[in-house]
Specification:
It is globular and about 60 Å long. 32% of the residues lie in helices and 21% in strands. It is built from 10 helices and 14 strands. The longest helix has 17 residues. It has 365 residues and is an alpha/beta fold. The relative contact order is 0.13. This is AAA family ATPase. It comes from Bradyrhizobium barranii subsp. barranii. Keywords: ATP-binding, Helicase, Hydrolase, Nucleotide-binding. One of its GO terms (molecular function) is helicase activity.
Amino acid sequence: MSDVGVFEFSTLENLLYNEAPKSWVLENLLAKGDTSSWFGPPGSLKSAVLTDIGVSVSAGRDWRGYRFSHNPDPADDSRGVIYFALERAELTGRRIVAHAFRDQLPSKLPIAVISEPLDLLDPACVDRVVRTVEEFEKTTGTHIALIIIDTYSKAIAGGDEDKAQTQNLAAMNIQRIHDRLCGCAHIATIGHTGKNPSAGERGSNAKLGHVDMAVQISGDKVRTATIVKANDQPEGLIASFEMEEVVVCSKWSDGSDRDPYTVAILAAATPATEARTASQRTTGKQTQALDALARVITTHGQDGAVHPDYWKGELARDGLIRPEDKNPRATFARIRKGLSQHIFEEPTGLVRIKTQPGNTPTCPA
């Protein structure tokens, strides 16, 4: 705490010797102390995706190629998950049970569902969330790793999501929660797109400035999750997925009985093929950009992938990124986003081509 009238500051020397490396829940995806926003249109499986992630984290498992970060100290078991299900809490609970049943996970998995209202615009929410985390940790014997808020719009229902003032107040209280928890957990919010999904998450774009990562979920039968904004990690495709129905049987391994039911959750396997639409065919400039990527993969790549800086340089030589561009980085980001269905950006930051330039495969018969 600084003296009255003086802001606390850190010199370069302080930063060099005191700054700890980034700590991960899922390496190169969910960082402790960070906030992410996962959004998409209705029915895009936003909640199902975060449930899938939450179950994996609580089980201490990798998630679709992203490694769960195990603490080397066995006494520090950081895999607790709290899911604020402000919509359809019963469905969220059934999905978690279905995951546990399908994957034969223990019943004492440290994941909890909360259906009570959460008001992120009320400063009192900070104390209540922190006390809830403390009680959860005592009950489960694990430390919190992930907090999911579904949906964000319900958590700011007392304000106007189109107003920056509302978004800034909610973000301030989320940051206070992080501070009180000493940055030990990742907070993921679930949101909606508006009438135009390409315009991003619904509401004031002030929220985008507060989150460390924004993920858009899109697609029809096969959905994709794509990082569209990140502070210090690569943008691009995270994973593809589709749903499967699981019949939760009446007899469990512990001998308990319950009424059987069927619920849809994310399929464990990655889809073998992805549905393609006419809108995903490449334009002339996109084909040029893919050709440029193919060239630098040949000249500078390894195992079919290359660092994006080589691609960016080739795009500049081809005139697709012009010297007079005010923000070449933003131009490069737009090109990558436009080609998200045709390239794969690995967790390591390298990029590779998923399809041949200018040749989008058709759906199998």
